[in-house]
Amino acid sequence: MNVAADGTGAPDGAGTYAGVLFDFSGTLLRIEPAESWLGAVLDEAGVALPPEELAATVRRLEEAGALPGGPSPRSVPGELRELWAHRDRSAEEHRAAYTGLARQVPLPRPGLHEALYERHTTPEAWRPYPDTAEVLGALAERGVPVAVVSNIGWDLRPVFRAHGLDPLVGAYVLSYEHGVQKPDPRLFALGCEKLGLAPEEVLMVGDDARADGGAVALGCGFLQVAHLPLAERPDGLRPVLGRARTGGIA
């Protein structure tokens, strides 16, 4: 298996791959900061909070883990633990899990918790990493097929279209559409099937060693990238180009 001995997913010299599966959040695109997430919703609702109260609310939402793609919860309330564990299996579970976490934080108007959830599903809430288009474009030029395999509860295709990335992605395998979430190998198997390749010919790229690294159990390679703010990861995806075969030829 093409995984470094230290578990980082760095190249180990074991070979290259004919196709690539990418995770979405924290890998190809990054969610907006919690400040702008909450600020956009409050602006839309015509609600203004004093700066100190706004900062405190942002901090509490982050601690609650209420922003999908943002920091993980410091702790999950007991009544949400089972739901949280399976949040990516369906749209209903995903929404209920994240709005449940958000409701741990009081907001000044009814409906704002739901509005926060809706905000994170919009293209405006996401930005590609600086090298995302470059790497996807280079893979397309080489004839290397690409699919996005994501644990998610909503359709991210409009996000890719809005950022001009959709033509560079051949297929999407979204957990909520299949009732299966990473690290279950079945989701990666669907991705390999979409590429028309055996798992041993496919590299999985993601920021989560547990969830995305589950592809290794199927026989895929795995390359881990750091889930960092955009400015702190200008070229984290470029190592993928060293692992991909031109035209799928060894």
From TrEMBL:
Organism domain of life = Bacteria
- InterPro entries this protein is in? HAD-like_sf, HAD-SF_hydro_IA, HAD_sf
Which Gene3D superfamilies does the entry link to? HAD superfamily/HAD-like
Q: Among its keywords, does the record have Hydrolase?
A: yes
Pfam families, sorted? Hydrolase
Q: Which GO terms describe its molecular function?
A: hydrolase activity
Question: Sorted alphabetically, which keywords does the UniProt record give?
Answer: Hydrolase
Q: What is this protein called?
A: HAD-IA family hydrolase
- What lineage does the source organism belong to? Bacteria, Bacillati, Actinomycetota, Actinomycetes, Kitasatosporales
